[in-house]
Amino acid sequence: MSFFLDSFKSALQLIWSLDPDLLVIISVSLKVSFFSTLISSLIGVPLGLAVALGEFRTKRLLITILNTLLALPTVVIGLFVYSFISRRGYLGSLGLLYTTKAMIIGQVILIVPIVTTLTLSAVSRIDHRYRKTAMTLGANALQTAFVIMREARFAILASVITAFGRVIAEVGISMMLGGNAKGFTRTMTTAMALEFDKGEFTMSVALGLILLFIAFSVNIVFHYFQGKTGE
Amino acid sequence: MLYEIKNVVKNYDGRNVLDISCSLQKGRITGLLGPNGAGKTTLLEVLAFLTQPTSGDILFKGDMIDFTKEDLVEIRKKVVLLHQKPILFSTTVHNNVEFPLKVRNEKKSERQVIADQLLAMVGMERFSRAKAHKLSGGETQRVAIAQALACHPEVILMDEPTASIDIENRVIIEGIIQEINRTRGISVIFTTHDRDQATRLADNIMYLNEGRLADSQNENIFSGTIERDTERNTFFITHNSTKIPVKTEKAGFVRISIDPAEIKILQKVDNVRSGCTFKGKVVQLTDEQKYVRLLIDIGISLNVILERAIYLANPPGIGETVFLDLSPEKIEIF
Question: pTM, whole model, 2 decimals?
Fold first, then answer.
């Protein structure tokens, strides 16, 4: 027990002293997660809207495929992207391997299905009268989609937050495509894995606490917005 | 003619929920009566070009509607459908009324003025800054009407506009319906369960049952008052002062029903019976296989059904003058 408490105490000291190594790791983590979430939202939200509102033959098949992709393991994505961007891969010449860009590519593949399927279900839950109302008031397809997105905004925001939560806590892709290079591609999760291997629990616990704190903050922001709809 | 509906069928899961041919005139208030599941709402959605019929043709102001075409948006802008329980966007009342103007790229200053005017018209100007989703059912309906008017529509379709709202709002909404028809010349088509409301508001009434125009016996229902002259002749006076001789002991406000099959078109004008003969104009002709249906304007619009052979013996065309014989004995009063 004292071992745990000691680690906890040292971790708090590390955070309190704003350890430079710690700050770099946090900033890399946040930067990569932010951009992968942003790109995934730009792809996933319109895609989810289009699938939810569109009527086409392969709709059910597409939804099944998207749901299947939710279960995609991070190591499989890591392997898949690696095969493209490694020296021998098609995109090898771009020199993406072991960069934050590679991590973002992998993470985007991981969470686009999450954002898409959650947007899809958020939009499907929206009262169908919104769509007919917008259309009968003269809105075109794009304007109608925008109205529906607006009505579903909090549920869509929730899907983005869920996706962010998934990437910030993800380790497989970051490790395989980022390479855990200190100061460049070391994220909170890869650092925790490494420090754990080294037997350095203090840093691991400190990073774990910060990870929890970030998750907590994001949820507080989310609940604030969600509360606004009920007013 | 506003709408011409030719053999329009809407099929859901192998069942025809709508199977109809009819015409609707411009500038009128039309009431669609019928029980639940009669196809009233489906018909309104077809008329709003929101639901594509399974088969059949719809002409809007003489133009054939092609549901597969992208430019339906333009035609849709002329027609607005108000749902039974309209839903307002989760923003302010004012923004809701502005929405149709916004999608039409109107200037912001103009949008403000028009939205304020329309809210005043439906008596909701005090709620301009209120959150739209916090209004009561009747208030929501009124804002939805203002929102619909912001579209400058030629037609407003209303699905049970006063169902499940309080009596105060019902009276207000009925007043608004009549006002927009009279002052803005907007054609209104509304569905209702309420026979009284239909006769009170509508210039003509259509009955729908199981997706079809229902038995004609229930057509030609009018409301008005019974009056007697000095010679003790009894007349039924409609809202626009058309005088029809009737036989009844009743007095005051009544409704009458005239079976369309019992109305005779006189072949010769010298058969005129004083008081019982009406001069009218044919405004609509509908082919109903064995029968021909005529809509004749004698001050009120009367549906007349003739056997095809009788019609063909002396076929009056649209716009022609005819003389009708309305026997007081055949007019039902209730």
Answer: 0.67
